[in-house]
Amino acid sequence: MGLDKTVDSMDEAVADIPEGASLAVGGFGLCGIPSALIAALLEQGAGGLEVVSNNCGVDDWGLGLLLRAGRIARMTSSYVGENKEFARQYLSGELEVELVPQGTLAERLRAGGAGIPAFYTPAGAGTQIGEGGLPWRYAPDGQVAVASPPKEKRTFDGREYLLEEGIRTDYALVRATIGDRHGNLVFRSSARNFNPLAAMAGRVTVAEVEHLVEPGELDPDEVHLPGVFVQRVARVFPDDPAAERRIERRCVRTEQEGGA
């Protein structure tokens, strides 16, 4: 691969993602999700996907589109509370779900990308996270078909810690505000929460960028994720319906309540 990592379209960017691939997907709620790449993957047709993402979108947007189409077999997430279809599939045994404390999930992605196979954390010690028995998959009759295993424990300075494994995935899909042709990326505000970490975890990382710039235009101090972690860059255009920035839960005040 040359230094110019740009591809001509979202379809080209995800064309080789196979059935059953594992994906790390960036975003926080609906903020900073790679919605154009997700839409392209929906059209591409791959299913049986094992997805690692902080959450699974909502019923009609983001990863929720892949979920509704029955294309996700397993989710590793920290928060899944805004998606009724997610709950239905999980409770009916159609979807396997591993719930991970949010900070632990972030560090598992970062560790995987940094080549760290495992680490100890106090998060979850003394709970079912450490003891095991959390339902990963239900049977159609409502019984637990697959439960989480117990985690290895060690004590440091009198405090119990759990061993957590780093996460590596076949692919990663992320969205950046600015990117150059070498794959150096800049994220904006909350979009920076999980996108850099997901990008690090992917063996092949695909970035959709809102503003594509030439190499050298970004000051090195501006770069949030260096291009060494990125293999493909695709520009997303603001008039693309799949690039819409949606608000997960719109909250407004009436004039009587002091709103504008």
UniProtKB/TrEMBL annotation:
GO terms for molecular function: transferase activity. Keywords: Transferase. InterPro entries: 3-oxoacid_CoA-transf_A, CoA_trans_fam_I, NagB/RpiA_transferase-like. The keyword Repeat does not apply. The keyword Transferase applies. This is CoA transferase subunit A. It comes from Streptomyces hirsutus.
